[in-house]
Every structure is written in structure tokens, then in C-alpha cells.
Design goal:
The structure holds 2 protein chains of 2 kinds. By secondary structure, chain A is α/β, with parallel strands linked by helices. Helices cover 41% and strands 19% of the residues of chain A. Chain A has 14 helices and 15 strands. The chains are: A alpha/beta, B mainly alpha. The interface between A and B is large, with 35 and 39 residues.
Chain lengths: 405, 307
């Protein structure tokens, strides 16, 4: 999602905010009690439209640090948080990333929120082999997964980059499995908007749906910005499919489902997280009922493993909600803290400490709030969780959460 | 056959919107030879004006017919005001300037109006538009071919708009003055016609029809957004050129033709070039073919001798 949708939203550039927040950093020198102070960085949008999501990430890390300090997880070390505002912009992200890398006390970073920002942050981190774990990046290229679709060998572009969330490319197959195996649809129509996100999603869905045994009709395309889909709807109706998968975003999807049902073609529309938006229901009204959308991750309150995290989070009285990525950020921070505990215990310091932490993060294996945290050789999580939502009386309700194998 | 007829109906509906907006392009061009690229935004303002009237000015529980009439008036008020201001401050000072200057100005006005509306409605998404005419009320046209109520309204509005406009231009005093101004503005002025007023009238009429279209568009699709005028504007301009820019019947004919071609391309175009994504390309293929054989459009006059 964050490769396509949230990025577009943009955030006002509030450099002042970034500067103000950065003033609480640089505490590398040891504090009292013989304790060494080490820093965990956060790169996330802390101002602008996405600030609530960004602050949820910051708070998740803050909670992990507080708990580690209280439990003395890393012996002889007091951990502090250094949260940097990337304003959801790639160039700002690169700047704050360089700042964190230059700060020798920083032993690991959590973030960023957006895949587009990660593309400029990850290379900076990799240059210093400083571990960075994103709770939310879904862009396939960040771990070289783009190669999988074309059948070439996957290579890891950033040696210190990890993520604990699922990626865009598995949304299509996950949705197809749900449609064909759970909903038992037989004849699927596919429509997409020709954009990278929509077309990729639709093609991945079609491939998996065919493999699962459904009949897939010839793919139809539309132009983003179109409003009159009556020609498309009439054509689809003449082919009598029992399911429609749409690769694209909600402005067009909502009009398609509405016009389709108005014209008497009463089949569910399913889309990716580009459709999973409150405005989809606002525009399509009652005709959105029965439609589906997939999204990455799981609703935190539905996860048994996250119950303790949510209780602790609430106890801190943070202003912003933990959802959607607070729990994942908490797990990311804990992966860094556990790696640090091992590496620091071996007496490593300076660059050797960063190198060792990056290596240890790659070997992570523990039960986090969002499930088992472990990574493959490319930095992707092995626990790829997605959720199918169904529009039920005017709201997206989760109907299935599962990990994709 | 039923499929073909249904697609034909879809095409006529699509063309009705193009035609209504195309009338504004064609009238202004006919009189001042200005391609008013901001006309698409006038159409968009009509939709937003109607929405504003409904959400802000109308008390809830207003009877549907009354609400529709007031929304139409509200939309027209916004469109016409914008068109008059635009003419007065953006185009009139450039009346004697080279053609390119008002053309670029029109593009500037277009961007300005889009951003203005975006500031009033700072959402990243389309705004829901009240569905006063239920879109799932289907009217059977026979043989299983259907049209829903808001679409029928759109088609009726386009036909009524065109007939009313051409009657006005042919019969009324002001209409004849418009024809005179179009033929020769200098001589028209010598005959005592206030050409500035006639030009404003052309803008006002075009804006009114665009507002009708903006409202019917909102009713049909249930959304309006600041960018809606850009695409419709280009299509309507294409329709006007297709029919012969400057010609009122031509604009509507061009609109219907373009709509039908786009729809038929979606259904019947051969495989690699099929689908809605290619519909626009087919529309332009038809435009090029028409212009090759009739350089002034389907109903355009030969103006080679115009000095």
C-alpha cells in the first residue's frame, strides 16, 4: 500500500517539526551509574496527514525501549529514542537517515512508513551497515522481490534493511486463493487501471485464480479518472461472470461496483488495499455491501499475541492510536534490542557493534506482538500476514486473517 | 443484437454529456475564435455549485423535484458567475492580442479554477453527490435494453439544451446579433450591436449548459471531483471539432458520435487494442479520419475565403 497510496497523499513539509524533534537526540556520552547510553532511531512521518500513523510507530518503539530499560534487557546500557520526522518525503528521509548514521550512539533504526521514503533511507543505512527494520513497507523492490515476478534471481539491494510486514506482490495470490477456495467462485472477470499497482495486482490475481481452477475471462482495462463504465458493465454482463477482481484504487472501483449493480449485474467486486478505504463505501453506498478488499497485516485487536502489547500501549496514554503499525514497530524495536543485547554482551563497540547487530537481526527468531519475528536471507519476514475484509452493512469487516505461504 | 443496442444506448448517454459541454466550446469559438480550455472547469463548477446548494443551502426534506430545480439554479449561478468573471478579466483585455495569448490564458484559468475548488473541498477523493434520481431505477426500452433514470435525464437535458439553444440563436434578436458578431464583428458593431455584450451572452449560455451537464453528471455517477472537468473538457472539445467547431448542431452530433465510438470500441475493438483503456485512442482515430476527409468537421462550413 505504501508504495502507491499513502505516498500520494503527501504531507506538508514541516521542517520546523523535524528540527524541534531532532533536538532531543545526541546523547551518546555516558550518563551516570556507569551506564552507557545507546540510541534507537525512528524515521517516520511525525507531522502532516500521516502523523497519526507515524506517531503510532514512534510510540511502539518508545514502549519497547521503556520496557527494555525497566527490565535491563541490555546489561549496562540505557536506551534512548531518537525520532526523526521524514514528512513522508523521500528527500527528507535521506537527510534524517544521514543524521542517524552519523550519530555513533545509534545502534538500529525503525521505519520508515512509506516505501518511497525507504528507497532513499535504506541505501544510507546500508552504507554504514546500520540495521533498519520497517513495520510497514510493502514495495517489492526494497528486498529485490520484484525479480520474482519476472522469473529472475532475487538479490538483496540493501544489506541492513529488514521488514516485518507482507509485500504488495502476495496480495493478488492471497486474494485469489480466498475467492476461489473460500468463496468458491467459478468464473472471474478481471479489470485493472493499467497503473503499476493495479495491473500488477490484477495479473497476480489472475495467475493464481487460474492455477486454483477458476475460469478467468479476458482482462478488461479502464483509464484512471473515467466515470462512465456502462460500456464495460454491459460487456461484462454479457459474459456472466460470478466475481469481479479490480486492480486499482477506490475512486474507480466504487463507481464500477455501483454501476455494475445498478445495471443488474449483482456480483461481488474484490480489490486490494487500494479499495480498502472508507470513501469506497461512502461513494458506492449500499451497493458496496458484499464487496471485498485485502490488506496487508492483521487488525491488531484480533491478534491474541498482541493483547499484552495493547494493554501496555494503553497504559502509556499515548495520544495517537497503536493501529495500524504500532505493534509491528514494537516488534521491530524488540528485534533490534535483542540483537543489541547479544552483540553488546560480546563486548563489541563502534562499527563492529553495528555489523554484529545487523547480523543478529537477520537471525532473529522470537514471538512478537504480530507473530513470529524471523527474516529470510533478503530481509523479508517469514510471517506474511494478510487480511480479507468484506463490506458488511456499510463498513469493512475482517473476515479472514491468514499468513501466506 | 440486444448487446449492440444496449451499447448504443450507453454511447448515446456518454455522448450527451460531451455534447452539452461541447456546445459551450463551439459557441465561444464561433464568436471570438477562442478555444476556451477553461470550459471543462465551468462544467466542474456546475457540479460543485449544485452540490453546495444541496448540502449547505437546502433544508433536509426538500421535495426531490424542487431540490433538483434549486440545485440546477445554484450550479448555473456558480458556472455563469465564473464564466462572466473569466471573460471580463482574463479574455477581454486580450481581445486584440495574438491568438496564442488568450489560449495560454485559458489554460491558466483552467488550472486556477481547479485549484480554487480543491481549496474549498480539500479532499483527495471524489465528493459523494446526492443520488436524488435513483440509479437502479431501470427503464426498459424494449428487447431487454435498459437505461437508468439519471441517464435518461442526461439525454433529455442534452437534446432540450441543443434545441433551445439553436432556436434561441436562430429566432431571437440577441441570437441574430450573435450570428452577426460571429460573421463579422466589425460590421456588427457598425450596425449598433454591442459586441462585448454578445460575447458575454455566449459565455453565459455556454456556462448554463455546462452547469446542466455538471448536475446531470453528478446525479448519474454520484460523485464530483475537481479534476472531472479536465477529461470531460478535452472530450467535449474533441466532439466540437468532430462536429465542426462553431456549429451548434455539429457539437451535439460530434458528442454523440464520440460517445458511441468509445463505447463500441470497448465492446468490439480487436484484441490487443480492445477494452476501455483504448476507447480514447479509437475516439481520436475517428477524429483524424473525419478531419482528413472533412477538414472543418462533419457540419463545419468551408471558411477558406474568410478574410
Amino acid at each position: 500500500m505504501h508504495s502507491s497510496r499513502i505516498v500520494r497523499v503527501g504531507a506538508p513539509l514541516i521542517i520546523v517539526g523535524a528540527l524541534a524533534l531532532s533536538s532531543c537526540s545526541s546523547k551518546s556520552e555516558g550518563s551516570g551509574g556507569g551506564n552507557k547510553t545507546l540510541t534507537i532511531g525512528v524515521v517516520a512521518p511525525l507531522s502532516g496527514d500521516l502523523s497519526a500513523v507515524g506517531n503510532g510507530i514512534k510510540n511502539g518503539v518508545d514502549l519497547a525501549i521503556k520496557q527494555a530499560n525497566a527490565a535491563k534487557t541490555v546489561k549496562g546500557v540505557t536506551l534512548v529514542l531518537d525520532a526523526q520526522d521524514d514528512t513522508a518525503k523521500a528527500d527528507v528521509g535521506a537527510t534524517v537517515a544521514a543524521k542517524l548514521v552519523a550519530e555513533s550512539s545509534v545502534v538500529g533504526v525503525v521505519g520508515p512508513l512509506n516505501s518511497s521514503v525507504a528507497k532513499s533511507v535504506a541505501p544510507v543505512m546500508a552504507s554504514a551497515n546500520l540495521a533498519i527494520i520497517s513495520p510497514s513497507n510493502s514495495g517489492v523492490d526494497l528486498t529485490g522481490r520484484g525479480a520474482l515476478a519476472t522469473g529472475t534471481t532475487q538479490t538483496r539491494p540493501y544489506k541492513s534493511y529488514f521488514r516485518v510486514c507482507a509485500t504488495d506482490d502476495i496480495q493478488g495470490p492471497f486474494a485469489a486463493d480466498y475467492a476461489v477456495k473460500d468463496l468458491k467462485v467459478k468464473k472471474v472477470a478481471i479489470v485493472h487501471d493499467k497503473k503499476a499497482y493495479g495491473q500488477g495486482l490484477a495479473e497476480a490475481f489472475a495467475k493464481q485464480a487460474k492455477a486454483d481452477g477458476a475460469t478467468v475471462l479476458k482482462t478488461e482495462t479502464i483509464n484512471p479518472g473515467d466515470k462512465d463504465f456502462s460500456a464495460l458493465v454491459t460487456k461484462l454482463k454479457s459474459e456472466s461472470p460470478d466475481f469481479l477482481f479490480y486492480g486499482g484504487e477506490y475512486p474507480e472501483a466504487s463507481l464500477i461496483t455501483k454501476q455494475m449493480k445498478s445495471a443488474g449485474l449483482n456480483i461481488p467486486l474484490m480489490g486490494g488495499d487500494g479499495v480498502d478505504a472508507a470513501d469506497y463505501i461512502k461513494i458506492a453506498g449500499a451497493q458496496a455491501n458484499g464487496d471485498y478488499a485485502t490488506a496487508l497485516g492483521a487488525p491488531t485487536d484480533k491478534l491474541a499475541s498482541a493483547a499484552q502489547f495493547l494493554t501496555d500501549y494503553k497504559a502509556q496514554n499515548y495520544k495517537d492510536p497503536a493501529d495500524p503499525y504500532g505493534a509491528a514497530a514494537y516488534d521491530s524495536a524488540n528485534a533490534i534490542i535483542k540483537a543489541l543485547a547479544k552483540a553488546y554482551g560480546e563486548g563489541k563497540t563502534g562499527q563492529a557493534l553495528r555489523d554484529e547487530i545487523t547480523k543478529e537481526v537477520g537471525d532473529s527468531n522470537f514471538q512478537g506482538a504480530t507473530g513470529t519475528i524471523s527474516f529470510d536471507q533478503f530481509g523479508d519476514t517469514n510471517n506474511k500476514v494478510l487480511t480479507v475484509y468484506k463490506v458488511t452493512s456499510g463498513a469493512f469487516v475482517p473476515v479472514k486473517t491468514d499468513s501466506f505461504k | 443484437m440486444q448487446l449492440f443496442m444496449q451499447q448504443l444506448v450507453n454511447g448515446v448517454v456518454l455522448g450527451a454529456t460531451y455534447g452539452l459541454v461541447a456546445l459551450g466550446y463551439t459557441m465561444v469559438y464561433g464568436i471570438v475564435q477562442l478555444i476556451n480550455f477553461a470550459h471543462g472547469e465551468i462544467f466542474m463548477l456546475g457540479g460543485f455549485g449544485a452540490l453546495f446548494t444541496y448540502t449547505v443551502l437546502l433544508p433536509s426534506g426538500t421535495p426531490v423535484v424542487l431540490a433538483l430545480i434549486l440545485m440546477l439554479l445554484g450550479g448555473m449561478a456558480v458556472s455563469v458567475t465564473a464564466a462572466v468573471i473569466m471573460e471580463r478579466f482574463a479574455y477581454r483585455p486580450l481581445r486584440g492580442a495574438p491568438r496564442l495569448a488568450p489560449l495560454i490564458t485559458a489554460l491558466g484559468v483552467s488550472i486556477f479554477l481547479q485549484e480554487l475548488v480543491r481549496n474549498f473541498y480539500p479532499a483527495k477523493s471524489p465528493r459523494p453527490f446526492p443520488q436524488l434520481i435513483p440509479p437502479d431505477y431501470l427503464i426498459n426500452l424494449g428487447g431487454g435494453v435498459t437505461i437508468n433514470a439519471p441517464k435518461l435525464v442526461t439525454v433529455i437535458a442534452a437534446v432540450v439544451g441543443m434545441v433551445a439553444l439553436s432556436t434561441f440563436v436562430r429566432r431571437s434578436r440577441t441570437g441574430r446579433a450573435m450570428q452577426a458578431t460571429a460573421q463579422d464583428p466589425d460590421t456588427a458593431r457598425l450596425m449598433g450591436i454591442d459586441t462585448d455584450r454578445i460575447i458575454v451572452t455566449a459565455f453565459v449560455l455556454g456556462a448554463s449548459l455546462a452547469a446542466v451537464s455538471g448536475l446531470s453528471n453528478g446525479l448519474q455517477f454520484g460523485t464530483v471531483d475537481p479534476r472531472m472537468g479536465a477529461l470531460t473538457g478535452v472530450k467535449a472539445f474533441t466532439a466540437a471539432v468532430l462536429g465542426g467547431i462553431g456549429n451548434i448542431s455539429g457539437a451535439v452530433l460530434g458528442g454523440f458520435l464520440l460517445g458511441i465510438v468509445e463505447v463500441m470500441a470497448t465492446q468490439y475493438a480487436p484484441s490487443p487494442l480492445s477494452g476501455g483503456a483504448w476507447a480514447n485512442a479509437w475516439g481520436f482515430v475517428v477524429l483524424i479520419l473525419v478531419l482528413v476527409f472533412r477538414p472543418n468537421g462533419l457540419l463545419g462550413e468551408r471558411v477558406a475565403a474568410r478574410a
